[in-house]
Amino acid sequence: MINGAMQHRTFVLETPRLILRLLADEDEEAVHQLYADWDVAKSLSRLTYPFSVEAARRFIADARAGLVERSTYMLGMFERESGAFVGIVSLRVPSQNPALPEAERAEEAGLGILGYSVARPYWRRGFASEGAKRMVAFAFDELGLSRLQASVLHGNPASARVLERLGFTVVEAGVVEEPADGGPPRRADRYVLVRRNRAQ
Ligand SMILES: CC(C)(COP(=O)(O)OP(=O)(O)OC[C@H]1O[C@@H](n2cnc3c(N)ncnc32)[C@H](O)[C@@H]1OP(=O)(O)O)[C@@H](O)C(=O)NCCC(=O)NCCS
Mean pLDDT over all residues of the chain? Predict the structure, then answer.
């Protein structure tokens, strides 16, 4: 059920306070500031750190490519009222990822992987919860996915709370995660939400 809004350049999801849209070149500095902040980056195993302006540029280019192939929906969250960049919410769909072997793609059919980050000045105002909720609805109702997954590193109660409010539950506790930047392995809890159990 993919409508006209799925044209990648005009791709937009809306919530009461936020516009979620594809990142553009002019968002480079905002993306850089978000992930160059260690208080944000330390919770993200897939991010390389330090995060340079060049890394932000690549991040935006990858987001665009991911949306074209429908393998990743990496969307900027912008406050409706001010237009300010608030953070990022993402959904990866491994079955659509051409870089993965065919067998792995088939195994991951119906799966989406949720992620989100909010710039520090906007923490504790419900933006992660609001953006993630919209992405969950998009994943189930518009993409027809059957289950969503997310991982939360130990010591990140805010992220765990975002997932719990959406109805996610822990399916594997204490999984070892290797950070992309080669730091020491860390423990995370893996959460899952299946479509029929989602919070309303
Ligand atoms: C996790 C993160 C996205 C939360 O963003 P946010 O917009 O502040 O989250 P919300 O305002 O929607 O709050 C969600 C819940 O967490 C709670 N919370 C927020 N910060 C908290 C903290 N430091 N400790 C405990 N609970 C906290 C809120 O009270 C809220 O709970 P409630 O709904 O019961 O009131 C943000 O802290 C962040 O970007 N962290 C770094 C990146 C990251 O961890 N991403 C997720 C990786 S799995």
Answer: 94
Going from the N-terminus, what domains does the chain have, and what CATH number goes with each? 4-197 (3.40.630.30)
Q: Tell me how far the alpha carbon of residue 124 lies from the centroid of ligand 1, in angstroms.
A: 6
Q: How far is the CA of 112 from the centre of ligand 1 (A)?
A: 21
Per-residue pLDDT at 5: 42
What pTM did the predictor assign? Answer: 0.95
Read off the amino acid at residue 64. R
Nearest-CA neighbor of 136 among 126, 151, 147, 122? 147
Per-position b or e across 93-111, b if 16+ CB within 10 A of its CB:
bbbbbeeeeeeebeebeeb
Other beta carbons within 10 Å of 83: 8
Task: Pick the residue whose CA is nearest to atom 3 on ligand 1.
Answer: 117
